[in-house]
Design goal:
By secondary structure, the protein is α+β, with helices and mostly antiparallel strands. The chain has a single domain, classed as Alpha-Beta Complex (Cathepsin B, Chain A), CATH 3.90.70. Helix content is 30%, strand content 15%. Strands 2, 3, 4, 5, 7, 8, 9, 10 and 11 form a nine-stranded mixed sheet that branches. It has a two-stranded antiparallel ribbon with strand order 1-6. Strand 8 and strand 9 form a beta hairpin. The longest helix has 23 residues. The radius of gyration is 20 Å and the shape is globular. The termini are far apart. About 2% of the residues have low confidence.
């Protein structure tokens, strides 16, 4: 199957999953739009792959479930994390961090304390997915069963955010900490891929609340950031993910900036065994995206601004 044919199959299935069930094959406007998107998408992939191809393990880009979207559409739908006005503090190297030995590789998934990759679909709720993922893992690290907690509850009830229209991870953490809301199981408050009215539960209802959180700037201190991950669990970060639309695998080293944060994700580990050390980053775009739903982002250079705003959750 050539690139054009494969693009058509991905384009068609993506439209169906987005709810566009009536595609008129003989519609001139449809075909004109399709041809324009095919050309732009393939040119974009060629451009992204033309740089730094000599570098070992560098990221590669191509056709995936987002290829049918123009970059402006992709950003408007999926990149809705907002930088918070809450203060972020330069990371103070604590004595406990200084004494932590840093292994060459570590991944919380190996400890069976990271839930499966979820899919935010057409909801701009990445900020909620990353925060809930951190709460789930931190609770499991404490020795409790790993549970799928409700992302929809955070989307609907975090009054200082905007639901599927976007939000801030720090605002969500501040809300969880201030209100001591108990997150319920996902089965009790399932994900609907749209904002809704907040469903309140009685104070006697079982659930999980947090005891606090930290928010630091680890730029230029990524080894300390890695030690924080070892001590506290998976870390909530916000990144510039514009070029992630076309990511297929490899280590992301270019095509993104610090200071341009627009997407929230969860770091579960790191790998320094190869020539290019990288963070292991869980996304919320489904397991068919990237490396089984994960991205690998180069460590040590604040690539995509990954160390600019880093939060840990305490339960």
């Amino acid at each position: 199957m050539n690139s054009f044919t494969y693009f058509l199959s991905v384009f068609h299935s993506s439209l169906l999953s987005a709810g566009k069930h009536k595609i008129e094959e003989n519609n001139f406007r449809f075909h004109s739009c399709l041809i324009t998107q095919v050309i732009e998408s393939l040119n974009r992939h060629r451009y992204l792959n033309s740089f730094f191809s000599h570098e070992n393990s560098t990221a590669f880009y191509g056709i995936n479930q987002f290829s049918y979207l123009f970059p402006e559409e992709f950003k408007a739908i999926y990149l809705r994390s907002q930088p918070s006005s809450s203060p972020r503090y330069p990371a103070e190297v604590k004595t406990s961090l200084l004494t932590v030995p840093l292994p060459l590789r570590f991944d919380w998934r190996d400890k069976h304390v990271v839930s499966q990759v979820r899919n935010q679909q057409m909801c701009g709720g990445c900020w909620a997915f990353s925060v809930v993922g951190a709460v789930e893992s931190t609770w499991a690290i404490k020795g409790h069963p790993l549970e799928d907690l409700s992302v929809q509850q955070v989307i609907d009830c975090s009054y200082n955010n905007y639901g599927c229209s976007g939000g801030s991870t720090l605002s969500a953490l501040k809300w969880l900490n201030k209100t001591q809301v108990r997150l319920v199981n996902d089965s009790e408050y399932p994900f609907k891929a749209r904002s809704g009215l907040c469903h309140y539960f009685p104070s006697s209802h079982s659930g999980l609340s947090i005891k606090g959180y930290s928010a630091y700037d680890f730029s230029d201190q990524e080894d300390e950031m890695a030690k924080s991950l070892l001590i506290y669990g998976p870390l909530v970060v916000i990144v510039d993910a514009v070029s992630w639309q076309d990511y297929l695998g490899g280590v992301i080293q270019h095509h993104c900036s610090s200071g341009e944060a627009n997407h929230a994700v969860l770091i579960t580990g790191f790998d320094k065994t190869g020539s290019i050390p990288y963070w292991i980053v869980r996304n919320s775009w489904g397991s068919s995206w990237g490396v089984d739903g994960y991205a690998h982002v180069k460590m040590g250079s604040n690539v995509c601004g990954i160390a600019d705003s880093v939060s840990a959750v305490f339960v």
